[in-house]
Design brief:
heterodimer; A: about 140 residues; mainly alpha; 3 helical TM bundles of succinate and fumarate reductases; about 75% helix; elongated; B: about 130 residues; 5 helices; about 0% strand
Chain lengths: ~140, ~130
């Protein structure tokens, strides 16, 4: 059981959610390595943070590709991270009632942040005046 | 007391960096949602990330991300590569080295703008 819930070691046998989780960590992980490093390069090397302004996002989000890119990043990072937090809680919390409470909070957090991120991405419409390209 | 070897440290670091990155992800989703409030409000959150203290915090985030990414690849090598388990210790060394090597150029680009006031000549500011 410990092997299963740490997400390390042998692949959990017998199917079910833990097997799915084991594969999900690895598949989303490979994708995230590329997506996150590209994201870091764009936002910190190619463009300095001081120039990642409203105007920058308005320009960037005029292309649907970047909205899709960011949505994929949001979805994979959030689900990968929340699944990790689930494993951590499983490892350290022994009382089953506390566990149910924490898992419920986890599910609520997942839905809330996923919705907030998705709504932000979908509903963004640049203002008429997008402001300065860089903040100084 | 149990004293693990490289396997324990790689596992512990993976867990701590993962939790740290998730915490930042929550903050990041909220700060990006500020674009819904227009340029004035959003650019104020950019101003926060431009502050040198937050730039230093960004360094720890970037370091955590690179470690977590490279060690994740190491875990997959142990799982799927037949000789993976035999070379896990060597691969841990490679993970640490790769983290440092990739971190240094990124760190330069992130922190250098915080010191522009040091290296800028006075005349360079006139046009601003």
């Amino acid at each position: 059981m410990l092997n299963v819930s740490t997400g390390r070691g042998p692949r959990p046998a017998g199917g079910g959610f833990e097997t799915f989780s084991w594969y999900y960590f690895r598949i989303s992980g490979v994708a995230l390595v590329f997506l996150v490093i590209l994201h870091l390069f764009i936002m910190h090397v190619n463009t300095d943070v001081s120039c990642t302004t409203y105007a920058f996002i308005a320009y960037r989000y005029s292309n649907v590709f970047w909205r899709l890119f960011d949505w994929l990043l949001l979805t994979l990072a959030l689900t990968h991270g929340m699944n990790g937090l689930r494993v951590v809680i499983d490892d350290y919390v022994r009382s089953s009632s506390t566990r149910i409470w924490l898992m419920s909070i986890l599910a609520l957090l997942l839905v809330t942040f996923f919705m907030l991120g998705t709504i932000t991405l979908i509903t963004f419409q640049p203002a008429a005046n997008v402001g300065a390209a860089c903040i100084h | 007391m149990y004293k693990g070897q490289s396997g324990m440290w790689s596992w512990l670091l993976h867990r701590i960096t993962g939790l740290g990155i998730l915490l930042f992800l929550f903050i990041h989703i909220v700060d990006i949602s500020m674009i819904g409030f227009g340029p004035e409000v959003y650019n104020r959150s950019v101003l926060l990330f431009d502050w040198w203290v937050v730039r230093l915090l960004s360094l720890s985030l970037v370091g955590a991300i690179f470690y977590h990414a490279f060690n994740g690849l190491r875990i997959m090598a142990i799982d799927f590569w037949q000789k993976g388990a035999r070379y896990q210790r060597v691969m841990f060394g490679i993970v640490l080295a790769a983290t440092v090597v990739v971190f240094i150029p990124f760190a330069y680009y992130i922190i250098a703008p915080a010191f522009h006031w040091l290296i800028q000549t006075p005349t360079a500011n006139v046009g601003r």
